[in-house]
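Q: I'm writing up a methods section and want to include an example of the input and output format. Could you take the sequence below and give the corresponding predicted structure tokens, formatted cleanly so I can copy it straight into the document?
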Amino acid sequence: MFHLTGIIISLFLALLLFTKKGKSTADFILALWLTLIALHLFCYYTLVSGTYVEFPYLLGVEIPLPLIHGPFLYLYIAALVNQSNKRLHWFIHFIPATIAYILLSGFFIQTFNHKINVYQHHGIGYEKLVSIIRLPIIPSGIIYVVWSLILLKKHSINIQKQFSYTEKINLNWLVYLTIGMGAIWLSVILGNDISTFMLVDLFILFIGYFGIKQVGIFTNRVVNTQLMDTDDIKLEEGNDPGVSSLANGTEKTKYLKTAVEPELMSKVHKELTLLMQTEKLFKDPGLNLDGLAGRLGVHSNTLSQVINSMEQRNFYDYINDFRIKEFQRIAVLPENSNFTLLSLAFEVGFNSKTSFNRNFKKATGLSPKEYCQQEKIQLGNAT
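A: Here is the clean output for your methods example:
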């Protein structure tokens, strides 16, 4: 029954994505993946329930399916971070699965009665072929999970160069997705089909809950509005800047930049410092490089170079430094003694307790609570 729930939810989520207005390449990939997960779950359900005799045309279809899940995970993540926009290259990832289906073609053309008989006798006559097909399954899963984590690591580094906060970037969604797949593959390695498919069902429930409630993947609300495109060429050609940012990595971004003249750099830096001190733009938790550059009337690449060169830090650290100093300033004011640490953190622009604690300790070597104790600052009890 639990497997049927996973199947229904998978198909429902896929339908939401296929009918979603303005769906992206990533949406299409996820929709297709969910459809194939539903097929895989259904095939497994027929086998464990003994109803496979009613669906003989599906027999054998499930054998190569594990080879497609790793590629779909990687391609979905790559599409979200704009690393895989050449669809012709997608097929390369599915060559192992394609070869597996070709090897099984002799079985597929058999009569239904023959197929049922093979399954009733535990794959008699096809044992060696199935063993060969299953040989790359575990390595494939491990490789794609690791590959996806590496891609996310690179992307998280790039995010920090563009944004003053990271929690609202939909990176957690992708990390959880990859960890979930990793857990499934661990179960595959341990060789327990029951626990593996139970994990797949839970994986689908997670995608549904987190994707709808936390991220909005399955709605028409734009998920990647925080991931603005910083590729100069694409922006100048009129491509949608709302499609994921930091498309081609740090190196390509560096090549797109042109050196800023020292005079201009000094001028922009002075204007930036004045703007931050007078208008305290850092208090906006959604402040990003493009928005700040727009206020200064310069290109985001110019501003990035100014911050990197003049402040010797990235945009993320630059903005959070202002927030920390502002917190230190207002925490000692008598009128704020009734406020909590967290409320003051929100006041200065942090959008979560985790972000505040992490960045404060990074800058001062102390947690906010330790700092207040050291400075004998009395604030509200809740922290």
